[in-house]
Write a structure and sequence with these properties.
Elements: H1 16-19, H2 30-50, H3 58-69, H4 93-110, H5 115-129, H6 136-152, H7 170-183, H8 188-194
Helix pairs in contact: 2-3, 4-5, 5-6, 7-8
Length: about 200
């Protein structure tokens, strides 16, 4: 079991039951866990590249999380059952996720926002819902990029900007601050965080 688990600021802490969901019991450090998760994410991205499924559904959101983290955690692709340092009450997750996917489909159908702003807004709301025990930020960024590709035929966002968003650094600090501003209905900092794009 992991003995040296370190969560960067604003990362979702795992409770003991969630930690027990680790499929590889030989993992003892955060570094080992990070490597394992990164390999799983790489596998999930390869799966995503082969998919032609409609992405703006709650089923796709769930399947994507399972593909990104399911080789590491037995709870991947299942909604969290506990309260966290961020996120809505777990009882509301299914309805809020379905509502978000309906809204995102409406935005795409009606060109409500530019492709980039639609992806940024989807990303923020998905993080705010925080459907899963962990991996929500990484999942939401990948989901936003999948929506850009599939629904808008637009290029992905460079979320990391040359940094590692899993570790504390100035980029992660700006990202967390922008998400908190969006929580207060100010999407501007998150748009500025993403930076100039052809459609922003």
């Amino acid at each position: 079991m992991i003995g040296d688990l370190q969560n960067p600021d604003a990362a979702t802490p795992l409770d003991p039951n969630e930690l027990d969901g680790l499929k590889h019991k030989h993992i003892t450090t955060q570094g080992e866990l990070d490597q394992l998760e990164q390999a799983n994410i790489g596998s999930g991205l390869r799966w995503l590249g082969r998919q032609r499924a409609h992405v703006l559904t709650d089923d796709f959101v769930i399947t994507l999380h399972k593909r990104l983290f399911g080789d590491v955690w037995n709870w991947a692709g299942t909604f969290r059952k506990t309260g966290k340092n961020i996120g809505i009450d777990p009882v509301h997750i299914p309805v809020e996720l379905r509502t978000l996917m309906g809204d995102a489909q409406y935005w795409a159908d009606n060109k409500t926002y530019s492709p980039s702003e639609a992806a940024i807004r989807l990303h923020h709301r998905l993080v705010k819902i925080h459907p899963f025990p962990n991996g929500n930020g990484r999942h939401a960024r990948i989901m936003a990029d999948a929506v850009l590709d599939r629904a808008y035929k637009a290029k992905p966002i460079d979320w990391a900007g040359g940094y590692d968003l899993q570790k504390m650094n100035e980029r992660r600090t700006a990202y967390i601050a922008a998400l908190k501003a969006a929580d207060q209905d100010d999407i501007g900092p998150l748009i500025r965080f993403v930076g100039p794009r052809d459609d922003l």
